[in-house]
Amino acid sequence: MLNGIHHVAIICADYPRSKAFYTQVLGLKVVAEHYRKARDSYKLDLALPDGSQIELFSFNKAPLRPSYPEAQGLRHLAFKVDDIAQVVTHLQLNGVVVEPIRVDEYTGKQYTFFADPDGLPLELYQVN
């Protein structure tokens, strides 16, 4: 049946700003970038080290995502990390606001949340 997650698709408001965030701040590798003239839209494929990908799209006048209070649908995107404190420090040095690190009451693992340039909730989850 299912073997894992291949990709997560994200629609951004400001393509250059989001591209810089996901590639320069989060360090994701560009797999492919396409400008789709008929849609006046970009599609950027980004790879994580485990082979999963993020597809970053730009669409003119895409509606805002309701988030707070939390709306139905995808709640957040979580990234596995080995050293959460190191990643938090890196994000903060790049101007990203990160919530305090918490401990999952069920697994005992550390996690925290931050947001991408469009306010999409992202999570760091320490797997070790």
From TrEMBL:
UniProt domain VOC: residue ranges: 4-127
Keywords recorded for this protein, A-Z: Metal-binding
Pfam families linked: Glyoxalase
GO terms of molecular function: metal ion binding
Classification via InterPro entries: Fosfomycin_Res_Enzymes (IPR051332), Glyas_Bleomycin-R_OHBP_Dase (IPR029068), Glyas_Fos-R_dOase_dom (IPR004360), VOC_core (IPR037523), YwkD-like_dom (IPR037478)
Superkingdom in the source lineage: Bacteria
PANTHER family cross-referenced by the UniProt entry: FOSFOMYCIN RESISTANCE PROTEIN FOSX, LYASE, PUTATIVE-RELATED-RELATED
Full protein name: VOC family protein
Source organism of the structure: Shewanella polaris
Phylogenetic classification of the source organism: Bacteria, Pseudomonadati, Pseudomonadota, Gammaproteobacteria, Alteromonadales
